[in-house]
Structures are given as C-alpha cells and as structure tokens.
Amino acid sequence: MTTTPDPITIALAQLPVSKAAVDDNLQMHLSYIERAAALGANVVAFPELSLTGYELALFSQLAMPHDVTTFAALSATAEVNNIVVIAGCPLHNPNGKPHIAAVICFPSGEHTFYLKQHLHEGEDAYCAHGCESGRINVNGTRIALAVCADFTYPSHAATAAAQQADVYLASALISLPRRLCTRCRTARRHRKAPPTAGTARQPRFYYGRMANLWQ
Questions:
Q1: Rounded distance, CA 204 to CA 167, Å?
Q2: Which run of H or E residues covers position 15?
Q3: Which GO terms describe its molecular function (predicted)?
Q4: pLDDT digits (tens, 9 = 90+) for 3-52
Q5: Distance CA 123, CA 78 (A)
Q6: Cβ atoms of residues 3 and 141 within 8 Å
Q7: Are 60 and 98 in contact (CB under 8 A)?
Q8: Which of 50, 24, 47, 39 has the alpha carbon at shortest distance from 81?
Q9: pTM of the predicted protein model
Q10: Domains and CATH numbers, the chain
Q11: Which residues, 6 or more positions from 77, have their beta carbon under 8 angstroms from its beta carbon?
C-alpha cells in the first residue's frame, strides 16, 4: 500500500545580493528564512550562488570550506524555525577547482551539499562538475535538486524521474533564453524514464531564479 506524503509548502526566495559580501548576504538570508517559516513554508530555496553573487573571477577566493560558520548560522536558523533551507554557494574542493553548490540545512541542525553537475559555457574554467544526484525527503515528499544548467539537460530530469522524485526543484541565476526555455518545458513535461525506473511518478517542477538584482 502506497502512503501519500503530507502536503508541504515550498518558498522560492528572490532577493538582492551584494557582490562578494557574504556576511551581508547571510543576514538577508536569515531574514528571508524567518519570513518563509512564519508564512508556513516547510522548505525555502534561494537562487544559485545566493550567498556570494555570481562572481566567477573571484570564485577561488570566495569558495567556502565545508565547516564555515556561514553554514552553521544557516543550520541554526533552520533548526529554530523548523524549516529546510537550500542556499547557493561556491564550495571548496580539496581535489581541484571549487564547486557551484547548494547547501541544504535541515531542522535537525545538520547540513549537506548538492554539487551542480552541468556547467554553462565558460564556467568550467573556474568550477568543477559535480557527479552525484541530489535528493532530499521532506515529510515524505521526495525532492530532486537542480542548479541552473542542470535542468536544461533532459538526462537530469530523467534521473529525477527514475528516482521517483515528487518534486524537481531548480534554482538559477538568470532568465532563460528561448532555446533553454524549450528545454525547461521538456524537463517539466518529462514522462519517460529509463527501463529500470518502473512506474516512476511525474515530479512537479519548481523554478527559482534571480535576475537583475545585483548590488
């Protein structure tokens, strides 16, 4: 017998971000987290690289270690407000170039990361590819994670379907050109999964972006 998960509310935070000003951006995040929780959200998702801004030339300098106090502050706020927080950051990679990452902070006080798998043209000069799918479970709802270019690749959506995701949650930086909007619609309508997926359910598609908001 299949158990229907409890309904959840996902907040997509659209916020101004100051160039490389991590402390200021963090305070903005904490305020938005509290507001989302007050409105009854179970999850609040921020755009790609929301903690630093999209600053590829500064990427190696801005890359954050896994135990940076910024993540501790986000986790503490997630715990106090009983909400899952997904924020964007450049993440230090001991084996090479940094990753474009999403840090996921849980109400338990723990946090983990999803590493962007598909890079836009030019990003690979500064960033490394991630190689693992990202998925979290919130009150029985399975959420597949994507960062920007990830969701323009049908294979990424296919993996989410194969893993029986209920929600496909993508955070991005900029508005999409027409050709990428077409791919976006393809991902949203994705029905076919690999043969091993069986009766994978159709995930709902949520897209949080940031555009023209830099300070």
A1: 5
A2: none
A3: N-carbamoylputrescine amidase activity
A4: 677 889 999 998 999 999 999 999 999 999 999 999 999 999 999 999 99
A5: 30
A6: no
A7: yes
A8: 39
A9: 0.83
A10: 10-209 (3.60.110.10)
A11: 30, 33, 34, 85, 105
